[in-house]
Design a protein that fits this description.
The protein is mostly helical and 143 residues long. Helices cover 80% and strands 0% of the residues.
Length: 143
């Protein structure tokens, strides 16, 4: 049965922690990409709002002004929703970064355990070399 610090068990734990770290880093990258996408959408909505804004030189009839007001209202609602999505994406990035830090900490802890086990094994081997070899003494002189 494998002990708590057997080299095979530590190597298996290291592989698992490394895989978990890779997954968490991929999730962090996806969260960052989502944040960038939401920020780009928010910027695009801002551009649309500025292009629909009324101008003084434009003296159109009431229907076009009403349509522009309707689109401004819709764009304002979209801008509010986009802002909420950006905030949610920022929170997702923060969670993903925290998970990445935790996964890195777990992986480095396993690496430290492996290094400690290797050091202890080396010390054990050195102590075994320091012990004198067992020699049988012949108590009788040759006859």
């Amino acid at each position: 049965m494998a002990t708590a610090r057997s080299p095979q068990r530590l190597q298996r734990l290291l592989r698992v922690r490394t895989l978990q770290l890779g997954q968490v880093q991929a999730q962090e990258i996806a969260a960052t990409a989502k944040l960038d996408s939401e920020a780009a959408l928010r910027a695009r909505i801002g551009q649309l709002v500025s292009s629909v804004a009324p101008r003084e030189a434009e003296a159109g009839f009431a229907a076009s002004l009403a349509a522009a007001a309707y689109y401004r209202d819709r764009l304002h609602a979209s801008a509010v929703a986009a802002e909420a999505r950006v905030e949610a994406a920022e929170a997702g990035v923060a969670r993903a970064q925290a998970a990445t830090r935790e996964a890195r900490r777990d992986q480095s802890a396993i690496e430290k355990l492996i290094a400690r086990a290797q050091t202890e094994e080396a010390i054990r081997a050195l102590r075994a070399l320091e012990e004198p070899p067992v020699v049988r003494k012949n108590r009788h002189a040759p006859c």
